[in-house]
Design brief:
five-stranded parallel β-sheet, binds pyridoxal-5'-phosphate
């Protein structure tokens, strides 16, 4: 499979090159040249397939022959080492829980898949290595650190804002050691992000083989399509139309869902649910895409003013707003509404939703007002423990600490404090 740049001013590249580079030389995002529908028989028979078989069938065309089949199967098995339960929350509404991975964030799947692809591409390289540079506001960093731990030929440098991530998140970033390095930035998340962007544009760092591990990278973005197939498998026997609501920040997850639909997965409608960072909901109202600086909210993994994957979504709809609106809605919600929703969901049957999932629930409820005889699914993208400072006071409960979090809380934090881009550059060497 070849990938082209959405800025249309760079050569087409292989899967391998797209994964290694992250972004095209014209700074465009890579996009697959074609998306082939899967055979009808695949969907008819999906309930008899394992998650690994489903994932292999879904991703195979995007990797092509660049990773041998057996190796790709191995990568998928290692990626999907946990469950993706679909849990009933109220009549006709389900939570698709994506947080049962090692760091309890849905980004575990993308991070694990991407790291293993890079590891494979580095298999014969003796001296050279890739450096994954990533800025995190909290959740991404832990998943990337865990996903890339011990991967051959890859060094991971994570920039996080000092004092601005939760204790759990900080421990997940700073305690692993080996090929994972944490830089603690005296500043805000935006400062971390700016430093990373500057490093990618800095020609004097070209020799470092820098790449990103956010959903810009196709190997982190594409495997997220698996979730939608798994949910379909679980809910197919109801014989109802499915509506998915994704709590959205950079819109990578929902964009992967749209690819699944293009491959023939029967998804009736998508809802992109956001917090007050509402560039996409505003676009759907007036057709004008006007990104803004991000605003801090309680669902902070979605505090994105200019969602990086939105351009990929527009590409799939040929920039045709009317077609797009047939498949896709988008609504935004305030922190106050999100807290009310968390309480409401808890009141239904004791289900604990964290703020991102609650935003997803709100968008789903709004969309379901205009549909009948459908099933709605909202994606629960993080375990409530990751946002305990919001969840515990809102619901007036104390959450038990899961074993994989408990384990890391006892480890010793190791980080290097820096303040300026020059210090980062000196560090990179
Ligand atoms: C990253 C993240 C999101 C947003 O996902 P996108 O693919 O960027 O839209 C939502 N919830 C949580 C908990 C996240 O970490």
């Amino acid at each position: 499979m070849k990938y082209y740049s959405l800025n249309h001013n760079a050569p087409n590249v292989s899967f391998e090159e797209a994964v290694i580079k992250g972004l095209a030389s014209d700074k465009g995002l890579y996009f697959p040249e074609s998306i082939k529908p899967l055979p009808k028989g695949f969907f008819e028979n999906i309930e008899n397939l394992s998650n690994e078989e489903i994932a292999f069938a879904a991703i195979e065309q995007f990797v092509g022959d660049e990773i041998p089949k057996e190796k790709l199967k191995e990568i998928i098995t290692e990626t999907l080492c946990f469950d993706f339960p679909v849990v009933p929350v109220e009549k006709g509404i389900y939570s698709l829980e994506l947080f049962h991975g090692p760091t309890m964030a849905f980004k575990d799947v993308g991070a694990r898949f991407m790291s293993r692809c890079l590891g494979y591409f580095n298999r014969d390289k003796k001296d050279s290595k890739n450096t994954v540079l990533v800025a995190t506001s909290g959740d991404t960093g832990g998943a990337v650190a865990s996903g890339f731990l011990g991967v051959k030929g890859v060094e991971v440098i994570i920039l996080y804002p000092s004092g601005k991530v939760s204790d759990i998140q900080e421990k997940q970033l700073t305690t692993l050691g080996q090929n994972i390095i944490a830089l603690e930035i005296d500043g805000m998340f935006d400062d971390c992000q700016d430093m990373v962007k500057k490093a990618f544009l800095d020609e004097s760092l070209n020799h470092k083989g820098l790449t990103s591990a956010n959903s810009i990278n196709i190997a982190r973005w594409l495997p997220q399509m698996f979730y939608f197939f798994f949910a379909y498998k679980a809910l197919k026997h109801h014989n109802k139309k499915l509506i998915f609501s994704c709590p959205s920040g950079n819109f990578g997850n929902i964009c992967a869902g749209i690819i699944a639909k293009k491959m023939g997965l029967p998804i009736h409608h998508f809802v992109a649910s956001t917090n007050v960072n509402d560039a996409v909901p505003r676009f759907l109202v007036n057709g004008l895409y006007e990104p803004k600086a991000s605003i801090a909210t309680i669902s902070n993994a979605m505090d994105v003013g200019n969602p990086s994957n939105f351009i990929r979504i527009q590409e799939m709809y040929n920039n045709d707003l009317e077609q797009f609106k047939k498949d896709f809605s988008s609504y935004s919600f305030t922190d106050a509404e999100t807290t009310v929703a968390m309480k409401h969901i808890y009141g239904l049957n004791g289900y604990v939703a964290e703020p991102h999932g609650a935003v997803g629930y709100l968008g789903l409820k709004k969309e379901l007002e205009s549909h009948e005889n459908t099933i709605g699914i909202f994606l629960e993208t993080a375990h409530p423990i990751k946002f305990l400072d919001v969840v515990e006071p809102a619901l007036n409960i104390t959450l038990p600490i899961p074993a994989q979090i408990e384990a890391v809380m006892h480890e010793k934090k190791v980080s290097t404090k820096i303040k300026t881009y020059d210090e980062l550059k000196a560090f990179l060497g």
